[in-house]
Specification:
Structural class: mainly alpha
Low-confidence stretches: none
Order of helices and strands: HHHHHH
Distance between the termini: 178 Å
Mean pLDDT: 82
Helix content: over 70%
Radius of gyration: 54 Å
C-alpha cells in the first residue's frame, strides 16, 4: 500500500504539472519564430546612409521673405488699380471719340472754316480792347460762336444740341446758351444782308 500512495502522489504531481502547464499554455499566446534564410554576406561594407541636412531659416531670411511677400502684394494691387485707371481712361477716350464723330458733320469742309472761326475770335478781342472787362471777355466768345454758326452751321448745330443735352441737367446754363444762339443768329442775318447788298 505504501507503494500505491507513493505512486499516486507522483501521478498527482505529474497531473498537477500537466494541468498547470495546459492552463498556462492556453492563456499565453503562441508566437512562432519564422526565420528567413540568412543572406550571403557581402565582401563589401554596407553603404553609408545619405545624410540630409535640413537648414532652418534664420530670422533675417524670414524677415526678408515677409518683406518680399508684402512688396509683391503691393505691386499686384498697384498693377490692378493701374489697369482699372487705364480701362477707365480708354472708356473716356472711346466716349469722347464717339461724341466727336456724332458732332462733326462729314459734309462740311473743316480746315479753312476752323481758321476763319479762330480769326473771328481774335477779331472779337481786337474790337473790344478799349471796352470794359465784361465786353473784353464776352466779345471773343460771341464772335467765335457767331462765326462757327456761319462757317460750319451743321456742326455748330450738332455741338449746340450736344451741349443742350448736357445743359438739361442744369437750366441756368440753358438760358445763357439760348441768348448766345440768338445773338449768333442775328449776327449771321446782318452779315448775310450786307453780303447780299454788295452783290
Amino acid at each position: 500500500m505504501n507503494g500505491f500512495f507513493q505512486y499516486s502522489r507522483k501521478m498527482t504531481g505529474v497531473a498537477g504539472v500537466l494541468l498547470g502547464s495546459a492552463i498556462s499554455f492556453t492563456s499565453i499566446p503562441l508566437v512562432f519564430a519564422q526565420e528567413k534564410k540568412p543572406k550571403k554576406l557581402s565582401i563589401y561594407d554596407d553603404p553609408t546612409p545619405e545624410i540630409v541636412l535640413v537648414e532652418s531659416p534664420t530670422k533675417l531670411e524670414q524677415d526678408i521673405r515677409k518683406t518680399r511677400t508684402k512688396i509683391a502684394q503691393t505691386k499686384n494691387k498697384f498693377e490692378y488699380n493701374l489697369r482699372g485707371v487705364i480701362n477707365k481712361w480708354i472708356e473716356i477716350e472711346q466716349k469722347t471719340e464717339k461724341t466727336i464723330k456724332d458732332v462733326i458733320d462729314p459734309r462740311e469742309r473743316f480746315m479753312p472754316e476752323v481758321l476763319y472761326i479762330a480769326v473771328a475770335g481774335l477779331a472779337g478781342t481786337i474790337a473790344a480792347r478799349n471796352r470794359n472787362i465784361l465786353i473784353r471777355i464776352a466779345s471773343p466768345v460771341i464772335f467765335t460762336i457767331a462765326a462757327s454758326y456761319y462757317f460750319i452751321p451743321q456742326t455748330s448745330h450738332n455741338i449746340s444740341a450736344k451741349i443742350r443735352e448736357y445743359e438739361e441737367r442744369s437750366p441756368k446754363f440753358m438760358k445763357v446758351h439760348e441768348s448766345i444762339k440768338n445773338t449768333a443768329d442775328e449776327v449771321k442775318l446782318k452779315f448775310d444782308s450786307i453780303r447780299n447788298s454788295k452783290k
